[in-house]
Design brief:
alpha+beta, 4-stranded antiparallel β-sheet, 2 domains, Immunoglobulin-like, 4-stranded mixed β-sheet
Length: 169
């Protein structure tokens, strides 16, 4: 192989290597967010752990980032971007919703509606999802389902956080 054949490749390799070096610092799983801190806790209603629910921390700061997770047997661990990565420090309103959608039942209903209309759905239409959610009953007070009516407020600190929440009628 002559030196003339190698030299034209060098600028291409240099440019490719430079692009990789520039991109590597941008790689990662932080999504450009500040440090997140572990948030775990327990949720009870009438002194009993909530069996299964979805929990969301809605930031008071309009520029903040929400975090959420699932409650199982009263315990939860929050996620912002990656599983169990916690939440950003700040104040949050907390929502908790124990209504569970039956995906198979919704798919069956969507298929029936599609057949009636002579169309095919690749996803369950939002209208059917909304109607299914409205028909579900919660065992928890409804005020906890949305942030504007929830009276649960917490502060996540720049440290490991353990939070206890007792829902009231």
């Amino acid at each position: 192989m002559s030196i003339r054949r190698v030299l034209p490749i060098c600028p291409v390799l240099s440019a490719a290597l430079a692009a990789v070096i520039v991109m590597v610092p941008g790689c990662g799983d932080d999504g450009g967010l500040a440090a997140r801190y572990p948030v775990t806790g327990k949720v009870t209603y009438k002194g009993e752990p909530i069996k299964k629910a979805v929990i969301n921390f809605v930031p008071n700061d309009p520029n903040g980032h929400p975090a959420g997770g699932t409650v199982e047997d009263g315990h939860f661990e929050l996620t912002t971007l990656n599983p169990n990565d916690g939440a950003l420090p700040g104040k949050y309103k907390v929502t908790i919703d124990d209504r569970q959608l039956d995906a198979d039942a919704m798919r069956s209903e969507a298929d029936a509606v599609a057949k009636k209309k002579g169309v095919t759905y690749t996803a369950i239409p939002q209208e059917l999802q909304a109607n299914a959610l409205k028909s579900l009953k919660s065992t928890l007070p409804g005020k906890y389902q949305i942030s504007s009516t929830s009276d649960l407020e917490v502060e996540v600190k720049a440290q490991s956080n353990t939070i206890g929440l007792e829902l009231k009628d």
